[in-house]
Amino acid sequence: MESSFIQWLAEPALTHFLIVSAILFALGLMAVISKRNIIMVLMGVELILNSANINFVAFSRFTELSMEGQMIGMFIIIIAAAEAAVALAIVLNVFNRFKSINLDDLNILKG
Amino acid sequence: MELTAILFYLFSLVTIGSASVMVFSKNVVHSAFALMFTLIGVAALYALLYADFLAATQLLVYVGGILILILFGLMLTGQGHTVSFKSVTVNMVPATVLSIAAGVLLIYAFVTTGWNVIEPIERDETVYEMGMMLMGSYILPFIVIGVLLLIAIIGAILMSTRISTENTN
Description:
The complex is a heterodimer.
Chain A: H1 2-10, H2 14-34, H3 38-62, H4 66-98
Helix pairs in contact in A: 2-3, 3-4
Chain B: H1 3-24, H2 28-48, H3 52-76, H4 92-112, H5 127-135, H6 139-168
Helix pairs in contact in B: 1-2, 2-3
EC number (chain B): 7.1.1.-
Catalytic activity (chain B): a quinone + NADH + 5 H(+)(in) = a quinol + NAD(+) + 4 H(+)(out)
GO molecular function (chain B): NADH dehydrogenase (ubiquinone) activity; quinone binding
């Protein structure tokens, strides 16, 4: 059992990449839940998107989802770019209105 | 141990280590720069997975674009010179419990599932194949995403220029 585990460690396959992406997802979730700075929350969202992307690319390498996985990964990167631009414009507006980017200070929805 | 195994462990260590620095750092600027190293590590993992075009796209779009955007947002929302870039952390215990539970559940599911793995195809480059797919069966998503980017950029410009007109009134 011991030697098979070492052999499993020595040959990175699909599962290794999936485990890395799971750890990244957990860290991103932690940042999203526990931080009170809007920009930190956005960076946690970027971590979660990247972990999903690693999954797609790993599946495209090791399973029959050959080039389609990379194509979906590219669309995810483009949508993340659009999301980051809009989200930071919203953050600038929020800062202009509330003079703070602490999420607990934002308690008025009606503009 | 093969070279790919050593490279995989090196780059996943860089990725996960700098991601944890990003999450647990008190200073937001330090977090942004740790995020840069995380994104570079993810790009190296893409290169290990034979996705060379995606690795280049990750470097250009994330490291060159989104990270600069995040740093701009950080600097534009700085609250004077007296308040440094601190990030308040709340809900530490529920967040830790929830994220560790999510991570353990995901790893358990990934390890115990029998994936239908095929013998990996050795590829030289993916650019030609991706270009043919983009102009072939993926032409509609390609055009739609172009329109989406245009709308997102116009919306971002509109929202962020409204600030200056409100300040002058």
